[in-house]
Amino acid sequence: MAKSEFTLADGVLDDEKIEEWAETFFQRTMQMLNQFYAQADLNEVLRSMEAANLGRLAAQELAEEDQQVIETAMKLVDEMAQHQIEYIKAYLAVQKGQ
Questions:
Q1: Structural domain of residue 39, as residue ranges?
Q2: Are 85 and 46 contacting, i.e. CB atoms less than 8 angstroms apart?
Q3: 33-89 per-position pLDDT tens digit
Q4: Is residue 22 part of a domain?
Q5: Is residue 88 in some structural domain?
Q6: Nearest in space to 52 (alpha carbons), one of 86, 28, 29
Q7: Cβ density class 11-21: b for 16+ within 10 Å, e for less
Q8: How confident is the model at residue 4 (pLDDT cuts 50, 70, 90)?
């Protein structure tokens, strides 16, 4: 495994660094998307979030990294996106019930 920012001195992957990177990537991406989503209907936002493959975008940014780094980051980003989707669905359900 080649040395990268995600590798400790002994060659072991630094899971904490990968998690930090994934969180930063997700937050940065959501900040960019929120500029568009602020103008959109929440149902459209939900459809867009469900269709977006943020994990794949993360993988593209990490293309030069070890496959295990890419897979871990993709999984984390996809989990964060899924949490956001669930939050939107819950919010819409509450709004519908009012």
A1: 15-97
A2: yes
A3: 998 898 999 999 999 999 999 999 999 999 999 999 999 999 999 999 999 999 999
A4: yes
A5: yes
A6: 29
A7: eebbeeebeeb
A8: confident
